[in-house]
Amino acid sequence: MVQENLLTGKPNYQNGSIVNLMQSIIQTLNPSKNPGAGAYGELDIFPIKQSKKAKRVALIVVDGLGQDLYDILDHKKALSTWHVGTLTSVYPSTTASAISTFLTGSAPKQHGITGWYMYLPEISDVATILPFISRAKKEDLVEYGLDPLTLTNSESLTKRLGTESTVIQPAEISDSAFSRSMGQGAIRQSYKSYEEFSSLIKGFVCGNTDSSYLYGYIPTIDSTAHHFGPYSLETKVEYEKVSKLLSALFKLAEASDTMLITTADHGFIHSPPERRIYLTDHPEMKRMLSLPLCGEPRTAYAYVKEKARKRFTAYIKDNLNEAIEIEESEKFISSNWLGTGTPSNFLKDRVGDFVLFMKENYAIYDPLPNEIAPSLLGVHGGRSVSEINVPLFVSGPSN
Questions:
Q1: Count of the separate structural domains present in the chain
Q2: Which terminus of the chain is more solvent-facing, meaning fewer CB atoms within 10 Å of its CB: N or C?
Q3: Beta partners for 327?
Q4: What is the mean pLDDT of the chain?
Q5: What is the number of H-type helices and E-type strands within the chain?
């Protein structure tokens, strides 16, 4: 088994995270755009000379392709020519939070999307945020009058750019409430195969469009790594398909006036069955909660009954200390894991009373009675370097 890097890694929001990458893209396409007070700086390893020659910018996000995973899977150096360096994701290192950063240009401390499960006081219920449904009843949150972008108190990046944009996503999510809302102002296109995706990207790279910005999303490495494990043969095969696709696109971009950028939302670690904690095995702990655990299997938010807070922390230290580090949520917000600057006024509602950081390769699950307990071999959302660090690839005009 490959040993992932479980050392703690904190996002570099100063000049080395995906938030800073998005600021660099904004300045490339709209240099007159005022970043505003307290805005995040640009990326320190962004190829400025290349960006100044580009007429268009395409960003492809490969879900789950962390830097460590890339180092392991790319043994044939298929993409090494275009590998610029390493970025950090945001925190938590997970799709819901990171994709919201790609689509708004802001960090979780401002956009407030804090994980797969989020408590929304607006409806006094827990939401599954990307499908945009209530967790227990599976009801469409649009029917409650909610809108994903409104929940972030942000403007979509495609509107912020002030230029025509295109968003390319898999057909199964392209028309979802989350995709429609967060991609406001963009032309939305869908694909059902790598061939279709490649064709759409090639059209943009070659200038067969009025759009000057494109966002494309590839989910397959993530879904494969979740089910089979990040270091499985199945994930390796999927990576080889994706790297072949990207290599062809990077070569095409070299002879174009399009800057083609590729990165990821997070990395992965392997979590075997013996490292999974289910609250069904800890009924005393579960009784102290006022809501099911929210967030992610690697970073969970605990909403604890007021009279049980001291007992809750004591229970974890006495029974789960080898697996969980617990911290008060107010301290978590002020520690800048979620970003820098002023937090959104609804952030505290979305991180509970305590944050449960999972140590090593532990994961925690709190399934509802109508849910099947997850058994994921690959997980993310935690503080390890393997989950936080992501690669950056850039191709485009160089002469």
A1: 2
A2: C
A3: 355
A4: 95
A5: 16, 18
Q: How many Å apart are CA 337 and CA 349, to the nearest integer? A: 16
Question: Are 74 and 148 found together in one domain?
Answer: yes
- pTM higher than 0.85, yes or no? yes
Matching residue, tokens 């759009």: 211
What's the CA gap between 80 and 72, in Å, rounded? 12
Q: List Cβ neighbours of 75 (8 Å cut-off, separation of 6 or more).
A: none
Is 293 in contact with 300 (CB distance < 8 Å)? yes
pLDDT, tens digit (0-9, with 9 covering 90-100), for 294-344: 999 999 999 999 999 999 999 999 999 999 999 999 999 999 999 999 999
Note whether 143 and 233 are same-domain residues.
Answer: yes
Measure the CA–CA gap between 136 and 326, rounded to whole angstroms.
26
Look at the block and give the residue holding tokens 């605990």. Answer: 302
Q: 20-33, pLDDT tens digit by residue?
A: 999 999 999 988 76
CA-based nearest residue to 2, from 386, 389, 358:
386
Residue of 252, 247, 261 lying closest to 79 (CA atoms): 247
**CATH number of the CATH domain containing 181:** 3.40.720.10
| Closest by CA position to 276, among listed 252, 297, 248, 250 | 297
Joined tokens for residue 239:
């990576």
Q: How far apart are CA 19 and CA 99, in angstroms?
A: 11
- What is d(CA 49, CA 394) in angstroms, rounded to the nearest whole number? 12
Q: Are 90 and 18 in contact (CB under 8 A)?
A: yes
DSSP H or E run through 358:
strand 354-358
Q: Which domain holds residue 374?
A: 273-379
- Whether omega for the bond prior to residue 47 falls within 30 degrees of 0, making it cis, is no
Element (H, E) at 319: helix 309-319
Are residue 282 and residue 264 in the same domain, yes or no?
A: no
Q: Confirm whether 339 is domain-assigned.
A: yes
DSSP string, 22-43: HHHHHHHH-TT----TT-----
> Rounded to whole angstroms, how far apart are CA atoms 18 and 1?
29
Instruction: Please tell me the distance from the alpha carbon of residue 230 to that of residue 239, in angstroms, as a whole number.
Output: 10
**Tokens (6 digits) for 195:** 């061939």
Residue 131 CB burial class (10 angstroms; 0-12, 13-18, ≥19): middle
